[in-house]
Amino acid sequence: MKTSFTKIGLVFLGLFATISCNNDDNQNQPVPAGCNTANSEFSQLYATTLASDPSFTDVTTMDLQTHEYTFVLSANKTVCSIGYQGNANLYTANIPYLIEIVDNSTNTVIYSGNHVFDSALTDYVSITPTALTAGTSYTLKRTVTNYLGNIGNTVGRLLRFNGPSPYPVSNTLMTITASDFYGTGGPVPDFGIPYIDIVFQ
Hints:
By secondary structure, the protein is of the alpha+beta class. Helix content is about 20%, strand content about 40%. The strands form three sheets. A six-stranded antiparallel β-sheet has the order 5-4-7-2-10-9, covered by helices on one side. The protein has a three-stranded antiparallel β-sheet with strand order 1-8-11, covered by helices on one side. Strands 6-3-12 form a three-stranded antiparallel β-sheet.
């Protein structure tokens, strides 16, 4: 009888552990094969825009909770990964960023996930494959929901314009039409492009 209760207890513990792991969206999954994070459309557009004006700078700044940009694609694509370089204090404390993709035509969040990003480099995480439609406006945002009482932990990498906005900026696939920074201050629209890489299959 004791052995049966022990076995039942172990089964319940195993089941509980499995359920807990499956519901933990803070666990970053490796980027799947076929999702190439090297030289993404976004990173190409970022580099081209940076090089287009000598007054533009690649900096880490803007101590506001949410950094976002709005974009349109010229072809249907599926997002498979997001890349970001996290804050060192948040990374050490294992605190995630909230990553969201919003369909602006319906004001609907079509992807939402919490992810911890390495602070040493742009770190890529796998996300639930999310289909985007050509010609539809989307907003990609990262939000710091816990900045450990230090607003300086909300800064991030961005292409700072240091003058009038050049929007829209585009390449063959992607056009960025606007950006914004807000939360505990702001908004500060069109200050620059936050480096939140979006990778398509």
